[in-house]
Design a protein that fits this description.
Helix content is 57%, strand content 0%. The chain has 245 residues and is an all-alpha fold. The protein has two domains: 12-32 and 166-239, Endonuclease Iii, domain 2 (Orthogonal Bundle); 38-160, Hypothetical protein, domain 2 (Endonuclease III, domain 1). Helix 2 runs antiparallel to helix 3 (52-61), helix 3 (52-61) crosses helix 4 and helix 11 (170-178) crosses helix 13. The longest helix is centred in the N-terminal third of the chain and has 21 residues, at 12-32. It is globular. The N and C termini lie far apart (41 Å). The relative contact order is 0.14. The model is unreliable at 1-7 (pLDDT under 50).
Length: 245
Amino acid sequence: MPSRKGRQELPNATLQSERKRAQLILQLLRSSLVIRPDDFVSVLVAKESNDPFRVLIATILSQSCTDVAAIQAYRILDERIGVNPANLSKAEVSTIAKSIRVAGLHHQKAKAFKRLGQMLTEQSSHSLDAILAEPVDASRSRLQELPKVGPKTADVLLAVWGRPTISVDTHVDRVSKRLGFASRKSKYEEIRAVLMQVFEEKDYNSVPLLFMAHGRRFCKARKPLCPICPVKPLCPYSRKTKRTA
């Protein structure tokens, strides 16, 4: 079952109403958007490799940068060094950093990658396969003990491996608030919790991908395209703005 840690349960009547609205929103997003694996570095790398370590590295690369840049950095890193614990543990931090420069924060990420490589080659207790096999709450907590792994990165990795969770990036944060699922001041855990209440578990993997695609295509940060938004009839935010395409 999904984690209830930090969850504020909605009143039953409100919850039922929001669940119906949530399903209608998903239907509209699915009919208006095309989800391409190449647009999401974690999904792409998981499809290519089925390797949790590679997906973890790719997800960290995507922190504070676009998926396009993260994919480019991942390709360069794999070509020059090899994306596996043994190779990264032996590589010089400066060499790793140069390989992933395009993704930004390359010095921080390079140090984290070397440390991750060392941890996963030296300590069997840090096996990603073992961690991902634990109950979701325990697995999520264990993942966040790793370098450069916060709640979002942990949730992305868990979701890719079919575990019941929802990751919240900047697009998901913005879309969730504009759709009225979360308040303007809601933080990561609050947004994640309410989304896990109003959406069905079978849709957990789709929700962040659709919300991200929607945020990129229609629900833009500065100039949302409310007049042509496919979920406008179900969105309270569209009634607060007169911006046009």
